[in-house]
Amino acid sequence: MTKKAAPKVGRHVLWFSWKLVTFFCIAFSLVALFRLHLRYDISSSAVSRTRSRIHYDGPAKIAFLFLARRELPLDFLWGSFFEIADVENFSIFIHSAPGFVFDELTTRSKFFYGRQLSNSIQVAWGESSMIAAERLLLEAALEDPANQRFVLLSDSCVPIYNFSYVYKYLMASPRSFVDSFLDRKESRYNPKMSPTIPKGKWRKGSQWITLIRRHAEVIVDDEIIFPVFKKFCKRRPALDARKGKMNMKLQKQHNCIPDEHYVQTLLAMSELEGELERRTLTYTQWNLSTTGNQNWHPLTFSYANAGPQQIKEIKVVDFSCFYIVKDGYQDEYCDI
């Protein structure tokens, strides 16, 4: 019996060996395919990240990026602004409500005809859709290599200097203008963002930014920080009597306001803060809105408080800011 069993054991070992070899061959093939796919993804990404290195000899443009609810109510003022500009020195992109078209029926300025994005999304204040819309604007503007500066604007912004002054001012600086600081008093950082976004890199600032091309590319190419914001940086829901005790839990959530943190935090994570002028070029007044929900928004200027004298006073405002880093935190102090 023992002598007859030996061949069976040998065949069993041989069969097991063949199965093992087959398994390793398949495994190695899958690893090779995965590495090849990964290498392709990295190469594809590298192509998109070398756009700023392409040499461009033509006139540099400023891309004016309007983040609008629907129409541009102050389009006639912007029309006058662009009227005296060289068309080779600027481009216009508008993110408006999906399906809204800028034409002779919806705008008083020919400069905005057809300038809306075709892939716009529905935007909600205090949600990640706001920064998603900003990224769409930057992505569209980056398609033109002539665009070298990118100015984000709301539908209530107006220019207080002429085009020539704005163009020379922006092109003279190799830096982006991004209001960015670490606020000791705010509590919007969600610990669940760690370790992808460490608390030490969490920044706050104005949504209204002006970027050089390289920084615009960093924002559009980001596939790491934006998903974290989308998942964990949310607006706290309103009270709902129907939810009873659940309201208490919901109200403990962070009121993140992603548009005041995303760009600043991403650039800090990318070690690019040394390339920033940490101030915005958009003038706002926040200290006059103190009642109800209005304190979430700056003052809206009207005809009564936006006359020639008021504009002259705004132009002479001198911002002088300095930063103090202590115990890993950065405080911003500004004198006006």
From TrEMBL:
It is found in: Membrane. InterPro entries: BC10-like (IPR044174), Glyco_trans_14 (IPR003406). GO terms for cellular component: membrane. GO terms for molecular function: glycosyltransferase activity. Pfam families: Branch (PF02485). It is a single-pass type II membrane protein. It comes from the Eukaryota. The chain crosses the membrane at residues 12-34. Keywords: Glycoprotein, Glycosyltransferase, Membrane, Transferase, Transmembrane, Transmembrane helix. This is Core-2/I-branching beta-1,6-N-acetylglucosaminyltransferase family protein. It comes from Citrus clementina (Clementine).
